[in-house]
Amino acid sequence: MRRFVIALVALLLGLGGASCGDDATTPGPPGPPTTSGPTPMDESTTTTEAVVAGDASDGLLGRWLIQAYQDREGRFSGVTIRGAVPELTFAADGSLVFHTGCNRGNTTYRTTGVYDGVNGQALTIAPGVTEEAYCDFGLGEQNIALPAAWLQATVFVLDRGTLELRTADGTVVLSAERA
């Protein structure tokens, strides 16, 4: 716990209170991450049916169970370690809580632009603060590779209860299913 508190204080001091995507040269106080606003949708449709064009950030909200990710060698690997299912939880206030299967942590995210139904919508995830528990039986690799994968992501795509985080060139670095 002490390491976590020290890491949190160090992160806050190092970032100077900047939030995800804030440019240190931009004048004015940092604000919370923003989106371009909710997409109106009929309650009888699912999120993926309603988000063909517009802002899909509301569809991103909630808990996602990670099924596969790009490891540090660039391979796309399924999550198969001792039933440890890592997850991401996106909140409306721009906070992101994660569990790597071993350690928990939190960070912030921001969506921008318009969701086009094929190429997704722009996404920025900031480096976060995590616990530092020892992870054994392959969880150590997963504990390192998962944040590395989602930090590469610049776009998210939603398709029938599946979330894909992709790089700018379209490479899928993480795939998750809605919990």
What's the mean pLDDT score?
A: 76
User: Biggest β-sheet, characterized?
Assistant: 8 strands, antiparallel, barrel
Q: Radius of gyration from the CA trace?
A: 16 Å
- The total count of helices amounts to 4
Strands, count: 10
Computed structural class: alpha+beta
Helix fraction by DSSP (H/I, runs of at least 4): 10-25%
Number of domains: 1
Shape: globular
The spatial strand order of the largest sheet comes to 1-3-4-5-6-8-9-10
- Which regions have little confidence, pLDDT < 50, spanning 5+ residues? 1-52
Beginning-to-end CA distance, first to last residue: 28 Å
Order of helices and strands: HHHEEEEEEEHEEE
Shape-level CATH architecture? Beta Barrel
* Top CATH class: Mainly Beta
Strand content is 25-35%
CATH topology: Lipocalin
Tags for this model:
179 residues; Lipocalin; 20% helix
General description of the model:
- By secondary structure, the chain is of the alpha+beta class.
- The chain has one domain (33-178): Beta Barrel (Lipocalin), CATH 2.40.128.
- Helix content is 20%, strand content 30%.
- The chain contains four helices and ten strands, in the order αααβββββββαβββ.
- It has an eight-stranded antiparallel β-barrel with strand order 1-3-4-5-6-8-9-10.
- The longest helix has 14 residues, at 2-15.
- The protein is globular.
- Mean pLDDT is 76; it is low at 1-52.
